[in-house]
Amino acid sequence: MIAFGRTDKGIVRKDNQDYFQLETLTDGKLLVAVVCDGMGGANAGNVASKLAAETFVEALSGQPSALLDDELVDDALRDAISAANRVVYEMAKSEVDYKGMGTTLVGAVIRRKKVKSVAHIINVGDSRAYHISAERMEQITKDHSLVEDMIARGDITREEAVHHPSRNLITRVVGTQPELTCDLFTVNLEAGDCLLLCTDGLTNLVSDAELFEEIRHFTDLEKCAEMLITLALSRGGPDNITALMVGV
Fold first, then answer.
1. Largest separation between any pair of C-alpha atoms in the chain
2. What gap in Å lies between CA 22 and CA 195, rounded to an integer?
3. Where are the domains of the chain?
4. Are 34 and 21 in contact (CB under 8 A)?
5. CATH among 3.40.640.10, 3.40.50.1980, 3.40.50.300, 3.60.40.10 for 2-238
6. What is the pLDDT of residues 26-65, one digit of tens each?
7. pTM of the model
8. CA-based nearest residue to 56, from 147, 120, 122
9. Which residue pairs from 11-14 have beta carbons closer than 8 angstroms and sit at least 24 positions apart in sequence?
């Protein structure tokens, strides 16, 4: 497995509240990846995203045997995101400057197998995971956002959601409540497939079709991640941008 991540504060924002982390375990048989997009005044968003990501990875790194077990890996992911939620929530309660801070989180455990690899994905918020093969790109996660709920009810179309004034309002966040609900997904990966974990600083500016068209031409994942950041910056970069690529 090969993985690279890149992040940029963008052109408009003063600080970068995105944060990502990668950890390889069990002699390369396991990879843990996470991307967070923090929210909160002053430096609170920075603190929330970094704290959540580090806690998430630390919790998973401490139990590699569970991550290799089909029956235990999802529970391990739930426990890890719960630990991240608890740590961010407690710090937000104890420090006045951090009151109300929170973060999105999309994380993955990728297990390398002889024939196929398997990715176990977990998410809260609107940071996304995509599965890219030679033929197509598919969004794995579902945004926890106001416009996604409106689409599900039939109030607006997906095309209308792109420019909706409430498109940046998310409905689930790590760290703002003592408990949280997350979504879990499992994806089989063929040789040559890759995963993209990213924040909305990328997906708000580049459509899924454009992402696929750009990614499919790259074999170097490091250059691919850099190219995605550059593309978002070329369109104004109003938000922090993070792209993390994993290839199997």
1. 51
2. 13
3. 2-238
4. yes
5. 3.60.40.10
6. 888 899 999 999 998 667 999 999 999 999 999 999 999 9
7. 0.95
8. 122
9. 11/233, 11/236, 11/237, 11/238, 12/236, 12/237, 12/238, 12/239, 13/238, 13/239, 13/240
